[in-house]
Design goal:
Layout (H helix, E strand, L loop, with lengths): L11 H11 L3 E3 L17 E4 L2 E2 L9 H11 L6 E5 L5 H9 L4 E6 L8 H6 L12 H12 L4 E5 L6 H8 L6 E4 L5 H11 L8 E4 L8 H10 L3 E5 L6 E5 L5 H9 L4 H21 L6 H21 L1
Parallel strand pairs: 4-5, 4-7, 5-6, 7-8
Antiparallel strand pairs: 1-2, 2-3, 8-10, 9-10
Helix pairs in contact: 1-3, 2-3, 7-8
The structure holds S-adenosylmethionine.
The site of S-adenosylmethionine (SAM) has 22 residues, from helix 3 and strand 5.
Length: 311
Amino acid sequence: MTSPLDPSAEPVFLRLRRLYAQAGFDIRINLNPAFFSGWGDSLFCMLYKDGQPLATGGGGISISELYFFECLRSAASFSSIFVIGNSGGWGTLGLSLLWPDAEVIAIDCGMLEPPNKLYEAIDFDRHRGQTGNDFGIELTNDLARRNSLNVRVINGMSPDDLQQTIPSACSRPPDLVFIDGGHSNDQLIRDFQGLQGLVSPACVYVLHDVVNWRMEKGFQECARVSALESRILWRTSSGMAILFPADAPPALREVVTAFTEDDVQLAEFRRRAPRRKMASIIEKLPEESLLGKVKTGIKWANRQMRFRRDS
Ligand SMILES: C[S@@+](CC[C@H](N)C(=O)[O-])C[C@H]1O[C@@H](n2cnc3c(N)ncnc32)[C@H](O)[C@@H]1O
């Protein structure tokens, strides 16, 4: 077996994971929620150091979301990328690896939440890492420097600091914005409104966690006040959403279509999912268990009945 000839053809997930691994950080990502009490956030990226999860402000984008951006890269080139909500830099650095010629600027307010005793008791991810408020910002800027990536994370609050930050930090108005900061409908609308007049008229907006954090109303309001087309990307882990100009090229539309679902089919799938889940649990019962033996017996009886009917 030979090494790949073109390192830039290497999947972004491998390059991004290696970038953290080389600095001594491990990750947890893409664990199937069905194997972990249905805990959906096990899909997102958590940084680890010396076996401990690190508190950086929130989970990074999942592998399916990285893959969405990788597909988007095949359809669109961006020269100026702006990120609201950086946490440990996983998403920000991923965007820079995908569009190495773009300038990537991120804003993050650092960890504002004081330690919460309730979370400490029940949530092992949140406070075990003992990191400082700006840990994620400093880590991302350090990793960017070490890997010669054109990335800068600025400590600031969206939307209040956008007016000052974007014109001074971005050498061109952003043509791709990734919003993953405060997770409420109001905050999403305020972030979106705060960006108006500061980004390129051809700007594409990708919004994280729209379905996961029930921000569909906020997303619809952003679509309503803009002249942009809007779709929810159901085939991404958090239910991301996208807003893009009506004259977007067909290649970009194809990527959007590839990551969404037809509304009618989605409603039908939602309706059938509880029964389908039950059928799948029964299907997968191990043969050697008591219930598995009952299942095998029922299958056998079913075959016998069909045989008699048919003969
Ligand atoms: C879910 S994390 C971002 C994860 C990141 N996008 C990734 O994929 O790796 C959310 C981050 O947004 C930051 N944040 C929350 N509200 C903000 C605001 N109003 N302005 C700036 N940053 C904010 C938090 O400090 C936190 O680090």
